[in-house]
Amino acid sequence: MPRSADFRNYAFDKKRVDASGKDVGRNVYWKLYATENLVRILVHSVLTIQVGPNWWKTAVDPDLQRRVETRMKDYAQRTWHSSPGKHEVYYTFLSDLSKVIAANSHLFEPIVTDIDLWVGRIEQIRLPRNIVGHMNWITTADRQRIDLFYHDFQRLFDQLANGPLAIAIPA
User: Fold this and answer.
1) What percent of the chain has pLDDT over 70?
2) Which end of the chain, N or C, is less surrounded by CB atoms within 10 Å?
3) What is the largest CA-CA distance in the chain?
4) Distance of CA 120 to CAs 20, 57, 70, 117, 158, Å?
């Protein structure tokens, strides 16, 4: 299917808005969804092995713990809406996941030897991820950056899952 053009560069046409949304969803959003959730699983799996099942309480900055607790309470008070999940990691933004990894890099290094490189790469997709997450259009370079990160991270995850890492999906 041919790639849609950014609707904002043309005279208003509701069909162009639809086409842009479908393009971003079909070609970019799902990769970010998969990647962000694999990062959550990686964080949870590594820290469960290295710290234990209650890693959140000891490996995460108290300020982040409070922010996540507030988010969780916000969802708990609105039971008519969907919930991100039960574990705190599902309420943690990609930028914060990157900080958790960086702060605990010594625990990740035995499993992901080039963890600092991966933290840097997460940071490279963080802003384009926010643009897509807020339903806006990204540049071709940002699409390529997300595509490359997605493929490389999938490869890393497969290597870890088939090797040293016991995958633990957060509850």
Assistant:
1) 98
2) N
3) 56
4) 29, 25, 28, 5, 20
